[in-house]
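Sanity check

After download, print the first record. It should look like this:
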Amino acid sequence: MAAPRAKIQTDKIFNGLAEKFRNNVYGTNKGWLRQEILARDLQQIPFIAQSRPVQVLDIGGGLGQMSDWFAQQGHCVTFTEPADDMRAEAERLFQQQQAEYKAPVTSYPYRLQQLADHVEPAELVLCHAVLEWLHQPQEALPVIAHQIQPGGWLSLMFFNEDGLRFSNIVKGNYDKALKDTLDGTGQRLRLTPISPQQPEQVIEGLKQQDLEVVSVAGVRVFTDYLREKTPSEEDLEKLLTLEWRYCHQEPYWRMGRYIHVIARKPSN
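Expected structure tokens:
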């Protein structure tokens, strides 16, 4: 099958956000909860549950947390991230952790539009928190699907427009919530993505690429709406239990700040 030549405009690379993501997301309770839920949810993929090493492609891998996690599980990881500051921080992490890896993480600066020409399809493709930073997210789905080997898997996580609307209402940002489409301007170094996604639209887009949607989960279904932003360690464990218990259930998963979709590509 020939590589798709999707008409994706060249998206802005959001340099300068590495420190903000590290301090405001990954270095917080909500970042820890996100990683814990993802690690549990990914156990649905057979080779992860069986600890069978495979080739993993991490598209837009940010600060490298997921690549590091997979490398520590013994998988051979290819990491791509076009933002220089994020990639540099990820590469420092890989260097620090390399003694824990069976194989080094290979790092590239490729944009999504460059993958088909430079990176081989993998048995597992990760694409976490990427779609919402693109101007044409739906046009990216054929490119992502092409990078999955026949019989391979996709772990796709994206920023949920419904969750953003609910959060704005809770915070009293009524004018933002009243807009039909919620987005950021893309002009400032903000953590609110420019293209929040409707879950049904993404799921339908995956099906149009002949991918079988195996699982849909909400990530941070409750956490972002708490009045108490710094729960105790005991309460944090209870919160993790609740997040995991309800993340696949209606109607709760729809309120996740992020949506995590696991999909499989047919063998032929």
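If your output differs, re-run the checksum step. Summary of this record's structure: DSSP finds eleven helices and seven strands in the chain.
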